[in-house]
Amino acid sequence: MTMSQDELVFLPLGGVGEIGMNAALYGFGPEKRRKWIMVDCGMGFAGEEAMPGIDLMFPDLSFIEERKADLLGIFITHAHEDHIGAISELWPRLKVPVYATRFAKSLLETRRLGEPGAPKVDLREIKPGRRVTLGPFEVDFVPVSHSIPESNAVAIRTAHGLVLHTGDWKLDATPILGDVTEESAFRALGDEGILALVCDSTNVVREGRSPSEAEVAATLSRLIAEAPHRVAVTTFASNVARIRAVAEAAKASGREVIAVGRAMDRVIDVARECGFLDGLPDFRSADSYGYLPREKVVALLTGSQGEPRAALARVSRKDHPAINLASGDRVIFSSRAIPGNEREVGAIINDLINQGVEVVTDRTELVHVSGHPRRDEMAEMYAWTRPQAAIPVHGEALHLDEHARFARAQGVQNVVKARNGSLIRLAPGKAEVIDHVKAGRLFKDGNVLIDDRDRAIPERRKLAQAGLVSVAIAIDETGEVLGEPAIDIIGLPNRGRGGQPLLDTVVEIVGRTLSGLSKGKRRDSEAVEKAVDRAIRSAVNEAWGKKPACHVQVVEV
């Protein structure tokens, strides 16, 4: 195998052109004998309107499934769901070692792999500074600041050179807990020579620098100390620094922390195990809530994104079995709504305000900061690393396009615009897109996975828009209709625009259509079904203005 035959390639299968579902492949070798590693394997959340009945989405990994004998391992940059959430679902299709830090490994085991029927994933702990060699790859974890402990960039070395995959990161000199993004470490990588910087694009449209977690902690401390009654704080359960800041503020003001929500409990257990909550008293359970004076309570609640089954939503609807709020209590949203969740979050805020609860958000107070870099931070990263090529990832089209312009302004001559499925040759030669491969989405539908070609989702959208008419007709071998057709309408209004019941309209048009068909025609069940279907859709459209889905079944007797 000569150097001229070997290629180093990058292939994103998720997270490029979208937020979430991060999954990136790096390959080395001749095209037919290439070895691969994967960085992250995350999930996304589906919107109920766009994907009725679907909660979770995963990247389609069929490209690497077909080459799984050449996949050497999966490296997890950090423990956010958009980077680890697909492991339990998709790992059985790959069955390779998964390398993660202690916190990410423990959270995976607790959150996803502790569920009934979960696969026994080959999880291997990795520590920054300890290089892992897999085939032609040498992989190092490089600590970075982010909104979850033990976040890392991934330095990937091959015979063709070094690639730096940043993962999610920011610059924060006072992160409360966890690592800082060390200038010296990234300057050293830049001095070594970086073929390509594969970099987070999330906040590239925002000027300046992201504030520090320490500033948020100071604000939370003040808001908790000043509150006359109960305080409830909702944040991402994975943000252990924020959980610690709330706990320290509660301790300083003589309050007790009550953790509410399974996701919060799981993260707190892992954080204590890893030492991130050392020096703080144990948190109380929800059962203690009603026994404490109002001025002694700080409740940590799940549900910052408006999830309808999470603790905060249930509290806002007054149907939580243990937690309630009253006029004069204070709720702090120490989070920002992820795009697509604004309506659900807004509904909860409105419900709380209508109950007399004071709601504090980042619109008026510094109660949340992003875990991603703004432009000044990104400029520093580019100055430290000085890559030959830049590949914007982790963002929607707007972010990727703006990042490409930004990278050129930092002096990077070769900026490669990628999307999911773009096969990019990094070396030898100039980095460029050389092919496009299959990349798509898988949807968790109940207990099964379906792909984006499955008819279920578009059919549900249609049903949601225009309902269903169901008709069953019995016809004997002579073409005689036996009895009355069984007819039901689902999701249609009771009456059309003329005031006539729509069910009567359907009954009338079915009878008229059958009467208009000869006995010979009625012996052809397929022809009857098509004729009745067309007639119903036309008649209902005239009466209502919409064409429903129709299910017509002819039973031959």
TrEMBL record:
Q: Which InterPro entries match?
A: Metallo-B-lactamas (IPR001279), RibonucZ/Hydroxyglut_hydro (IPR036866), RMMBL (IPR011108), RNase_J_2 (IPR042173), RNase_J_b_CASP (IPR055132), RNase_J_C (IPR041636)
* A GO MF label: RNA binding
Q: Which Pfam families match?
A: Lactamase_B_2, RMMBL, RNase_J_b_CASP, RNase_J_C
Record domain Metallo-beta-lactamase: where: 20-220
Keywords attached to this entry: Exonuclease, Hydrolase, Metal-binding, Nuclease, RNA-binding, Zinc
CDD domains on file: RNaseJ_MBL-fold
Q: Which SMART domains match?
A: Lactamase_B
Database matches in PANTHER family: RIBONUCLEASE J (PTHR43694:SF1)
Instruction: Please identify the protein, giving its name as recorded.
Output: Ribonuclease J
The record lists the organism as Methylobacterium planeticum
